[in-house]
């Protein structure tokens, strides 16, 4: 049974997994060890989210800006993602987890794109947690691609600029069929969104946690859910508490 503190479970939790490098530095270890420990935290978080009844979990695995890191680190990160999909796909599939990938796919290397597509294809009919992996993802790039699609519709005479709505823009994003995140968590004490789900975050609750990502675990995930349940979401209107007393 869900405890009363967790009475409101967010439908969609999105996480900026930050602090792998600092976790490793603090221990005098190479950054790559921080990333490997980060994958263990990913596994634990996916299980915790599924157990909690969260429907969508989005993880920021690799941003479109991450290509500017040293080549060895880029290769480490891609290698870890490849290994994660190869090793964990069967188990995720058994657990009825559906995998979705968001981000720019056009120019992705041939050693990663087919794996991502296979993960999506294999799990497409699964009905428990949807694990959304943001890979080569940048929110501004996603919005630019959506704007370009609508501009082409206008150019072709199929759409008038005056008829463009917020829903139409949402419908052209990579997340078109995914609800907006209710809760966005960033670990490591940094307090910014770093080009992650900017459009979709309009009414998300933001939670900045001091822990480095490799230390993130089931308990911290449930702590985050408790904070979320205690927040008063107003979506630009009045608090449900205020409204209830007629104030
Ligand atoms: C931030 O730490 C983390 C990343 C850039 C990547 C996160 C990737 C993983 C956890 C591994 C692969 C993902 C999956 C879904 C299997 P940082 O290197 O920016 O840390 P720092 O800010 O302390 O240097």
UniProtKB/TrEMBL annotation:
Residues binding substrate, per UniProt: 19-23, 31, 35, 63-65, 67, 69, 186, 192-194
Record bears the keyword Transferase: yes
Xref: Gene3D superfamilies: Decaprenyl diphosphate synthase-like
PROSITE patterns assigned to the protein according to its UniProt record, in alphabetical order: UPP_SYNTHASE
Keyword set, alphabetical order: Magnesium, Metal-binding, Transferase
Cellular component annotations (GO), alphabetically ordered: cytosol
Residues annotated as catalytic: 18, 66 (proton acceptor)
UniProt record, GO biological process: polyprenol biosynthetic process
Source organism superkingdom: Bacteria
Cofactor note text: Binds 2 magnesium ions per subunit.
UniProt binding sites for Mg(2+): 18, 205
Family membership noted in the UniProt record: Belongs to the UPP synthase family.
NCBIfam families found in the cross-reference section: PRK14830.1 (NF011405), PRK14834.1 (NF011408), uppS (TIGR00055)
Record's subunit section: Homodimer.
Name recorded for this polypeptide: Isoprenyl transferase
Species the sequence originates in: Neorhizobium lilium
């Amino acid at each position: 049974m869900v405890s009363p503190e967790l009475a409101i479970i967010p439908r969609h939790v999105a996480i900026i997994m930050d602090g792998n490098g600092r976790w490793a530095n603090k221990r005098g270890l190479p950054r790559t060890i921080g990333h490997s420990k980060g994958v263990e935290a990913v596994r634990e978080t996916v299980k915790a989210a599924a157990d909690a009844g969260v429907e969508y979990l989005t993880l920021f695995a690799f941003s479109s800006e991450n290509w500017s890191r040293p080549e060895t680190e880029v290769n480490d990160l891609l290698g870890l993602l490849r290994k994660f999909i190869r090793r964990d796909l069967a188990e995720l599939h058994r657990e009825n987890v559906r995998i979705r990938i968001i981000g720019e796919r056009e120019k992705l290397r041939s050693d990663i794109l087919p794996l991502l597509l296979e993960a999506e294809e294999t799990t497409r009919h699964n009905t428990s947690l949807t694990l959304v992996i943001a890979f080569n993802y940048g929110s501004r790039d996603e919005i630019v691609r959506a704007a370009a699609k609508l501009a082409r519709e206008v150019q072709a005479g199929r759409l008038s600029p005056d008829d463009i709505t917020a829903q139409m823009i949402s419908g052209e994003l990579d997340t078109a069929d995914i609800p907006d995140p209710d809760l966005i968590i960033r670990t490591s004490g940094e307090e910014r969104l770093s080009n992650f789900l900017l459009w979709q975050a309009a009414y998300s609750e933001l939670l900045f946690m001091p822990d480095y990502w490799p230390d993130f675990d089931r308990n911290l995930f449930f702590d985050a859910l408790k904070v979320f349940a205690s927040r008063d979401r107003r979506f630009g209107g009045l608090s449900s508490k205020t409204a209830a007393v007629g104030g």
